[in-house]
Amino acid sequence: MKKPDGRGRDILQGLVAAGKPGRPTDGSLQQARPSGAVKAMSLGLDRLSAEAAQAKALREELANRETTQELDPALFSPSIVSDRIPSTSDSRFQELKAAIAENGQQIPIIARPHPSEEGHFQIAAGHRRWRVAQELGLNVKAIIRKLTDQEVVILQGQENGPREDLTFVERARFAMQMESHGFDRDTLSAALSVDKPEISRLLTVAQAIGEDLIVAIGPAPKVGRPRWLQLVKGLEQSGAHDALHKLRASSEFVSADSDQRFALALQAVSPGRRASKRRPASSDRVAWVEKKGGNIRLVSDNAGFASFLQRRFPALLEEFKSSPEAKSKKTPKGATH
């Protein structure tokens, strides 16, 4: 009997195997893939999750985005620390005012929500633009940020510092005011972009001169550190403060610009210059008047005139007592009775 052909058996086994579920040859199980409704639901959830993440990112971007607003200047108040000294003869302010009147406000001011007044704002940078808007009757363009006190003064100082927009004495006064508000030297250095030794020098000048006299003189844009140091030294002289007090009440000081006021103040406290002397205009005059502090002196280098005056003095004094001058003016301090 003929043996069965092995090839037929192999073919039969192949057909049987083809009808059975396939099994992985490496012993691992394949994960079933979702299909139909399950697959559609999974894709939908993934899409919703991605859209939610995008929406959150958009909300954060909108919240952080700085937008310029046009607001009523009456809603704003100055910074907690003043850097500029008010001046009626500020040519730079007048130039800025003319530019904004012609072209509008190009650069917005920066402010924060007022820490104690709901619906109001406190300026960190752009005080002059705010003043211009007030004077021109315009709304002020502003960017509103959430800022701490420290961030306010640093931003305020750095806005002006790089442009060298503050005069020497304004920088010194700004440092003094920041320190009086409790800010540390690191903050002062950051606001003025200088090192701590320079901060010490600025404070020395500002504290020696004082807020009152600094404001009275003004920003003095043409006056640098050396001349302010001369004024500090002059203030150490006896009678210097009295001389300045009288000077500030004079029409000459009031009508002068800031640089001229500084020159007058320096002259008033300089040694040997505080005496205001009226010397004879011609050779036939033998006496002149000197004013020093609150005293008035009649000075003569002519011995004959001195003897004459001494002899006639009692009669002159009686004549003075009955004159209109005696009734309208007080006798100068130190005068002889």
UniProtKB/TrEMBL annotation:
GO terms for biological process: chromosome segregation. Residues 15-34 are annotated as: Disordered. Residues 69-161 form the ParB-like N-terminal domain. SUPFAM superfamilies: KorB DNA-binding domain-like (SSF109709), ParB/Sulfiredoxin (SSF110849). Belongs to the ParB family. PANTHER family: CHROMOSOME-PARTITIONING PROTEIN PARB-RELATED. This is Plasmid partitioning protein RepB. It comes from Neoaquamicrobium microcysteis. The gene is repB.
